[in-house]
User: What shape does this take?
Amino acid sequence: MKRVVTLVAVLGTTLLSAGAAFGQAADAGAAPAAGNSDHVNVVGHLGIGYLGRRTVLIAGPGGGAADPTPVDAPVLGVRYWLNPMLGIDAGLGLSFTSGSVTPPGGDEVDKVGSTVFILHGGVPLSLASSQHFSFQVVPEINLGMASATQELDPAPDNELSGFHLDIGARAGAEVHFGFIDVPQLSLQAGVGLSFAYDSVSASNPDGGDPAEESKDSTTTFGTSLANNPWDIFTGNISALYYF
Assistant: This one.
């Protein structure tokens, strides 16, 4: 796992650095004249908003690593355009769940809650823009971790965890709402390719021997839309407002 994570991290750093270098080199050649599009007019302004929904797998209670459960954390963050070609994305997603259930005639039992956090980074490159539209390629990296505790009194607790790392790039558009006199507001959507690594573990999946740790890992390379075409409306659309 350490070797895979190290390799993916190196690839991610290289991809983001290459994107930044490409943006700087292209901008040094020919930059659009200020004022010819909504995109150019938000250069130097900070955009704040929703950067998409991200998912981390975590070992499921009872099923352990063989039956992982997806947990979501919407990513909120910022985008700042250094020049008309090159920008920076940074975001954070958090999710905390807990609760309890009381069956008829029974005692209250705590639910298995979870803690999830996701870090997002990207280097958006605007390759063309006109009026309210900007065509962009965004190299990006996402790092996520999830944890939960299943109480097995009197047996030792079952500690559940999950780890996610992906790098890739999306191609798509950022559309500003200048056509209704709100150019500071924009929506973004895109599709792309990513390399992802997921790992889950459970410390005591059978509730008998805490030394019998269960682990499972998966490596995936594919499009960012996964299996369902409607995923573009949940994980691949983001909204920003520039100040």
In short: The radius of gyration is 21 Å.
